[in-house]
Amino acid sequence: xxxxxxxxxxxxxxxxxxxxxxxxxxxxxxxxxxxxxxxxxxxxxxxxxxxxxxxxxxxxxxxxxxxxxxxxxxxxxxxxxxxxxxxxxxxxxxxxxxxxxxxxxxxxxxxxxxxxxxxxxxxxxxxxxxxxxxxxxxxxxxxxxxxxxxxxxxxxxxxxxxxxxxxxxxxxxxxxxxxxxxxxxxxxxxxxxxxxxxxxxxxxxxxxxxxxxxxxxxxxxxxxxxxxxxxxxxxxxxxxxxxxxxxxxxxxxxxxxxxxxxxxxxxxxxxxxxxxxxxxxxxxxxxxxxxxxxxxxxxxxxxxxxxxxxxxxxxxxxxxxxxxxxxxxxxxxxxxxxxxxxxxxxxxxxxxxxxxxxxxxxxxxxxxxxxxxxxxxxxxxxxxxxxxxxxxxxxxxxxxxxxxxxxxxxxxxxxxxxxxxxxxxxxxxxxxxxxxxxxxxxxxxxxxxxxxxxxxxxxxxxxxxxxxxxxxxxxxxxxxxxxxxxxxxxxxxxxxxxxxxxxxxxxxxxxxxxxxxxxxxxxxxxxxxxxxxxxxxxxxxxxxxxxxxxxxxxxxxxxxxxxxxxxxxxxxxxxxxxxxxxxxxxxxxxxxxxxxxxxxxxxxxxxxxxxxxxxxxxxxxxxxxxxx
Length: 628
Fold this sequence. Notes:
five-stranded mixed sheet; 628 residues; alpha+beta
């Protein structure tokens, strides 16, 4: 197999940071200015302009045999999309290898310059590179014109030198970086294919929602002006001053402060109404409508590039642009949803901000298959730790919080038979002792699974005293002894730089001293610059660059979330292999265009070969529009 190293410098009037690489490369004035490339270990060559690129590299770049060529770039999807625009076709990601993706996987910083420093290369990028990119690759002035090479010849020569150095760095970085572990190469390819397909949106509905959002906000601001007499009630200093004049001085206007004031009985009606209007005006979720319009095209109503590969240290995805990873939890019921959308489309002013917020998911039209893993983190934790009773209850299909409550004793002295009889009743007929016992078990499962104590319980809404909270922590730990052993086995292995935690998780130390958790899939979560100073674990955060404390609960959480992510990744790969049109995944949830419920449930409910005995269940349905 031969290797083509390539780096491009491009021009487009579309802002890359704001609109993303898909819309950037689809701009009518998009142009590749410079391509620097090298073949294998050969010297770096410079090509100026698109005709030279077509003539020199066309035959290589149009090759579709991954056994013949591999194309290496940093943030390779940018080069892939740019060259796809040049050749008028979609270039398959299986031909491409991304050094930025490898940097993320192996715990390095992500930019090419930072990665070169992390790998201790003697010379990095030119310091004035960013200024040169701003000069030649971005539109200048109101006319948004290009600065041409002959207009700034000295800077152009430095720019060519900068571009050449990038490809030299690529060659050096590629030699030093470890390769893709296990299935992760296929995960990266699957991620690119899903981003290429994009998330389909109903632009007509989204346009109507955007207009209604603007109307609502104008009305809310007008109502606030009439109530307060302020010129700009959105102004924090003006509103705080007005509130003080009404006898309600506040230190700030944060959500917590406003909620606390609204809970009081002594607040004047004008103040209460003003703060309620401000709360409605501050709903951020409705901003997703204009954002979705901005990141799609009327002729092609899809938001592409919305998934950010390996955004978290655990390997989990992040969101971009419309941020499908951060959607409102609540949705309208199907009938209410249909009625609200009908009102929107006919320009009815009655759809308020609260309803608009619950329509955000509905921007994705159906039919779609929606499915997500049931209780995935609890299942993975029990499996990794070998907590046999909990695993058996999952295999029997029992309610986690009922079976957990029985083991923990949150239902008191009642027998399992009585508790299960109560669980079988409709919600409205369940006795209070059952509802409270199940809620306590749920809080214990959510708050204590990753080593949490009473503070974690309160974060999950526990309302008892500290003594009661500590008792619940003790109940959880007594009922889940293997999970507790797993926590401390993982901590001991990390402190020792090697060893097992349970049957499926292992800690290893790499040749450069990096300590890593080896997941069952074979992928590693790397803790670079790992320290055990004073008996406390810490490492260098790969995204922010500073040291981060690693206590055993965080290490367990990272491990379990990493395994859950790998399960989702394996399912996505299999879905694409079987030709299913996957368009989005959100945390542990998958969206597929069309009716594929049987296939999706089968794939997600089947554990991969590296997770023997893990009881997985996918809960899904067919939706006319996306909802929750």
